[in-house]
Design goal:
Elements lengths: L15 H4 L9 H14 L3 H14 L19
């Protein structure tokens, strides 16, 4: 291997922007804590872990359970 490589004539990957889309998503703190702890164990950034998990869910066509209970003490507003 060379000690130095000259990339001055290189070009950026024209497809790089198509690979991922930046989004804003609100996650519960315990979910973020879980993925950050998992990231510390695995050495994989937590955002990548979340993406891997969501990709697995999408490829398996998993659907979330949409039955949940309101938080304790929460009242219904009409």
């Amino acid at each position: 291997m060379r000690k130095h490589y000259d990339f001055s004539a290189g070009t950026k990957n024209p497809y790089a922007k198509r690979l991922k889309q930046q989004v804003t998503i609100r996650l519960e703190r315990d979910v973020v804590r879980y993925f950050k702890a998992l990231a510390a164990e695995t050495g994989i950034p937590y955002q990548n872990l979340i993406n891997l998990y969501l990709r697995e869910c999408a490829s398996d066509r998993r659907r979330p359970s949409l039955s949940w209970q309101p938080a304790a003490g929460a009242s219904r507003q009409r």
